[in-house]
Write a structure and sequence with these properties.
eight-stranded parallel β-sheet; 10 strands; Aldolase_TIM; zinc; two-stranded antiparallel sheet; TIM Barrel; FBA_II; alpha/beta; EC 4.1.2.13
């Protein structure tokens, strides 16, 4: 199937109640490994880039990597810009070819957030792209974005008015989830997902997925979390597997970068394939 709009991935997942891994990559190795794992698992996948990654590599270079690595791919894949409060970066990525964006105006008053999100949706539509929206900050700092302060929840009425007014395609609520590593088992407001889905039938994005239990994932996906974000787990897998390999290389006094890359790629692929099984997206790639 190849590169498709975000809706072509999250809508079927939402209706069939499985989750699609939305994984924040940060270089060519992680991009290639995530795509390769999705093909092996016959699973759709959402590749995400943070603003920090866009700025460090460059939107043109990132998109060229994406275009090259997805040429001929047989499962549905899409490229998403995660948590972007900067309208200039958002426009830059839409022009470059990103399939969807998360406009993160959660630090603004809801009225201003809504006004600007309406503008972002209109802009994205010009490029055939979709928009994820949020009105509450997800706790935690990730790639230099966010805060450890817990943001207050908005009322259900405010959430539904925001969804109706903006025309967003995916909504990301705050339900006690957090970016980064959880210091303790999170207490999640599961019922809030059900309330939103029953009222508006919109796919939900689950942020702060790294560290949730298998039971929590299963419950939230069954309630309508079709897009499941994973960032910290990939970073930890990448760095810890690399560190273990390098320690052994030092002990053996053997320094072979291609072997390091092969080892790390294998660990990343194993992690991604496990996620597709856990979220129920394995085998849903259309092959």
């Amino acid at each position: 199937m190849g590169v498709v709009p975000l809706k072509d991935i999250v809508d079927p997942a939402f209706h069939a109640r499985y989750g699609v891994p939305a994984i924040n990559i940060f270089n060519d190795l992680t991009m290639e490994a995530v795509l390769a794992a999705a093909e092996e698992a016959n699973s759709p996948v959402i590749l995400q880039t943070s603003v920090k990654t866009v700025r460090s590599i460059g939107s043109r270079q990132l998109f060229d990597m994406w275009k090259s690595l997805t040429a001929g791919i047989q499962v549905p894949v899409t490229l998403h810009l995660d948590h972007c409060p900067d309208r200039e970066v958002l426009t830059e990525c839409l022009k470059a070819g990103w399939n969807s964006v998360l406009f993160d105006a959660s630090s603004m008053p809801v009225e201003e957030n809504q006004r600007q999100t309406i503008e972002v949706v209109a802009e994205a539509r010009q490029y055939g792209a979709q928009v994820e929206g949020e009105i509450e900050a997800i706790t935690g700092v990730e790639d230099d974005h966010g805060s450890d302060d817990v943001a207050p929840q908005q009322s259900l009425e405010t959430v539904l008015n925001f969804i109706d007014a903006t025309g967003i395609d995916v909504f990301a609520p705050s339900i006690g989830n957090a970016h980064g590593s959880y210091r303790a088992a999170p207490v999640l407001d599961l019922g809030r997902v059900t309330e939103i889905v029953e009222a508006r039938h919109i796919p939900i994005a689950l942020h702060g997925g790294s560290g949730l239990s298998q039971e929590q994932f299963a419950d939230l996906i069954a309630r309508g979390c079709a897009k499941v974000n994973i960032s910290t787990a990939l970073k930890e897998t990448f760095m810890q597997s690399s560190l273990a390999f390098l320690k052994q290389a030092e002990q053996d006094n053997k320094w072979d970068p291609p072997s390091l890359f092969k080892h790390t790629r294998g660990e990343v692929m194993a992690m991604v394939k496990e996620l597709t099984e856990q979220f129920g997206s394995a085998g849903k790639g259309g092959r």
